[in-house]
């Protein structure tokens, strides 16, 4: 609890789309379950305001990345299920490429920072 | 109902206050809330505590409805116009301001008419400048409403200045057809300048462009309504004043009609914003009624022309009629798109729209063939160039629209792609209209 890293709002927003698409690529799901999965994947470090997930899901729907379906599962209440489309998978692949490039560049930068200590430290 | 249920109902009502969050959205959020409460309850919290935590986690409702509004700009539009109940009751919704601009436009047109000498028919000078007496006030009104910064205000004004310079410095010959064409295309070009002010300078945003399309359609509806009412009023005035003194009614009308027509441009724009929900209920009905009728009429005429073989030989008047028809169809299709809920599945109306677009496409191709034949026989004239360009612009637009509608209906494209195509295409029309005003006259030596 005490050592939780606060992740910058912009970073949370930027990572939201690929994260949700990735979760949906495992299989169709609904809002609350997606959010639980996000918490699981990030070990609780990535804090979303629950409500904000829905405008994001609606955007993905508008862009044709997901399809939606209201259904009543055998045991529970009526829910709106989201399933990824081919276009969604393509978008996810593209996002993966972009994030890989960014993380690679950052990793390079970090290793260099470690090699060159700040002037006063030697 | 137990306490908890009534608290959930209260929460629902609170979320639903914002018009950007619709009923199904609230259902979805409520399911989330209940799932969360169930999990928290399983973790040992009491129902009350679980409710509080779940609501807190859902986040601040204003922020949430803002996010919804950004995503569904078709709904945002309602939000912008009527921010909240209390506020719309308090202010007069800018009526006074709108009326000031309307009066300014009405007075300007009167001054121009007096300056013109009013000798029966208006002079060519009046005809070619008429849109410049009215439309700038509309752009100014929106620049004011949107509180445009200086740079953007200047950008809004630029097309008007350029238009005024072109219309008055070009040495148009007597009975010049380029002059007539420029006068016809100038209002179209200026309308896009109004659009720039309307979207608050965010002309790159496709959502805002769609808002402007929606505005244009609704403005048109209001303007027609005002014109109809005005027509009745004028008819009655004539009937009442005629017995008093012969000709009295007519002279009153000569004064009132131009001013009324000019002022109504602004008033209609104000009405679109202020009385949004009225037209909102009416517009989908109008598109529902007229899109199938136009689809039927277009298909019928395309078939008739194809079968009877008249397709090759339209004369000039027919060509003009067909151009108007095609523009009306395009307007209807565009407006239908802008009024459609973007997440809706492809349905019957999309099919009807595809039929209308396909039939319009066939007609447009016939018109083009006929036109090319005329040009081949008789050479280029300003009228033919203007008509040819317009038809080519329409043709490309209709091909794209038909193709994407087809894919939408077969589930291979999203509605988003279709509306993007149309909003991307808007600058083509703007540039074409501006081109006819600025480039065409010198090309034909102002004849």
Which sheet architecture does the biggest sheet of chain B show? none
Tally the structural domains of chain B: 3
Beta fraction of the residues of chain A? Answer: 5-15%
> Which percent range describes the beta-strand content of chain B?
under 5%
- Shape field of chain B: globular
Mean pLDDT score of chain A:
83
CATH class of chain A: Mainly Alpha
Q: What is the oligomer described by this structure?
A: heterodimer
Rg value of chain A: 18 Å
CATH-wise, what's the superfamily of chain A? Winged helix-like DNA-binding domain superfamily/Winged helix DNA-binding domain
Strand order of the largest sheet of chain A: 1-3-2
Structural class of chain A: mainly alpha
Order of helices and strands of chain A, N to C? HEHHEEH
Taking the sheet with the most strands of chain A, its summary is:
3 strands, antiparallel
Count interface residues per chain for the largest interface.
A-B, 24 and 29 residues
End-to-end separation of chain A: 34 Å
Number of domains of chain A: 1
Tally of separate helices of chain A: 4
Give the tags.
heterodimer, A: 122 residues, Arc Repressor Mutant, subunit A, 4 helices, B: 447 residues, mainly alpha, 3 domains, globular
Description:
With 122 residues, chain A is mainly α. Chain A has a single domain, classed as Winged helix-like DNA-binding domain superfamily/Winged helix DNA-binding domain (Arc Repressor Mutant, subunit A). Chain A contains 4 helices and 3 strands; from the N terminus they run H-E-H-H-E-E-H. Chain A has helices at residues 9-25, 31-41, 53-62, 86-115; strands spanning 29-30, 66-71, 79-84. Chain A has a 3-stranded antiparallel beta sheet with strand order 1-3-2. In chain A, strand 2 and strand 3 (79-84) form a beta hairpin. The longest helix of chain A is centred in the C-terminal third of the chain and has 30 residues, at 86-115. Chain A is elongated. With 447 residues, chain B is mostly helical. Chain B folds into 3 domains: 3-71; 93-274, no CATH class; 277-413, no CATH class. In chain B, 81% of the residues lie in helices and 0% in strands. Chain B contains 18 helices and no strands. The chains are: A mainly alpha (122), B mainly alpha (447). The interface between A and B is medium-sized, with 24 and 29 residues.
């Amino acid at each position: 609890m005490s050592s939780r890293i606060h992740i910058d709002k912009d970073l949370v927003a930027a990572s939201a789309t690929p994260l949700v698409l990735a979760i949906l690529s495992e299989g169709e799901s609904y809002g609350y379950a997606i959010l639980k999965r996000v918490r699981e994947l990030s070990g609780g470090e990535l804090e979303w305001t629950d409500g904000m997930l829905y405008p994001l899901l609606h955007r993905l729907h508008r862009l044709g990345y997901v399809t939606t379906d209201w259904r009543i599962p055998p045991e529970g209440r009526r829910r709106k299920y989201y399933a990824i489309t081919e276009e969604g998978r393509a978008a996810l692949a593209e996002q993966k490429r972009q994030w890989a490039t960014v993380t690679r560049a950052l990793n390079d930068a970090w290793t260099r920072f470690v090699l060159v200590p700040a002037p006063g430290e030697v | 109902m137990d306490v908890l249920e009534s608290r959930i109902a209260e929460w629902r009502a609170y979320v639903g206050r914002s018009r950007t969050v619709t009923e199904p959205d609230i259902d979805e959020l409520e399911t989330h809330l209940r799932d969360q409460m169930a999990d928290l309850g399983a973790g040992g919290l009491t129902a009350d505590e679980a409710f509080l935590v779940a609501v807190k986690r859902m986040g601040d409702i204003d922020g949430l409805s803002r996010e919804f509004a950004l995503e569904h700009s078709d709904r945002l539009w309602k939000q912008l116009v009527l921010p909240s109940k209390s506020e719309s009751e308090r202010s007069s919704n800018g009526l006074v301001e709108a009326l000031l601009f309307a009066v300014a436009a009405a007075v300007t047109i009167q001054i121009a008419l007096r300056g013109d000498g009013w000798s029966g028919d208006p002079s060519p000078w009046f005809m070619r400048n008429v849109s410049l007496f009215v439309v700038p006030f509309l752009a100014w009104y929106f620049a004011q409403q949107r509180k445009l910064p200086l740079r953007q205000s200047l950008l809004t004004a630029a097309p008007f200045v350029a238009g005024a310079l072109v219309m008055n410095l070009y040495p148009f010959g007597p009975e010049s057809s380029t002059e007539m064409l420029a006068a016809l295309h100038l209002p179209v070009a200026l309308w896009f300048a109004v659009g720039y002010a309307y979207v608050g300078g965010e002309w790159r945003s496709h959502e805002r462009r769609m808002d402007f399309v929606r505005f244009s359609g609704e403005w048109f509806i209001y303007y027609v309504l005002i014109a109809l009412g005005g027509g009745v009023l004028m008819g009655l005035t004539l009937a009442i004043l005629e017995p008093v003194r012969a000709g009295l009614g007519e002279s009153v009308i000569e004064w009132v009609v131009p001013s009324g027509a000019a002022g109504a441009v602004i008033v209609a724009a104000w009405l679109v914003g202020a009385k949004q929900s009225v037209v909102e209920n009416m517009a989908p009905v109008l598109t529902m009624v007229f899109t199938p009728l136009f689809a039927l009429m277009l298909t019928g005429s395309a078939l008739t022309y194809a079968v009877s073989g008249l397709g090759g030989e339209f004369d000039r008047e027919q060509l003009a009629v067909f151009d108007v028809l095609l523009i009306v169809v395009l307007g209807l299709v565009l407006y239908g798109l802008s009024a459609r809920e973007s997440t809706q599945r492809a349905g019957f109306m999309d099919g009807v729209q595809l039929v209308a677009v396909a039939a319009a496409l066939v007609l447009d191709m016939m018109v083009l063939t006929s036109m090319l034949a005329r040009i081949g026989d008789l050479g280029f004239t300003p009228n033919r160039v203007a008509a040819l360009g317009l038809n080519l612009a329409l043709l490309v637009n209709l091909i794209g629209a038909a193709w994407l509608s087809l894919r939408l209906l077969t589930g291979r494209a999203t509605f988003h792609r279709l509306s993007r195509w149309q909003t991307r295409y808007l600058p083509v029309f703007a540039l074409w209209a501006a081109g006819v005003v600025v480039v065409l006259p010198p090309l034909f030596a102002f004849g």
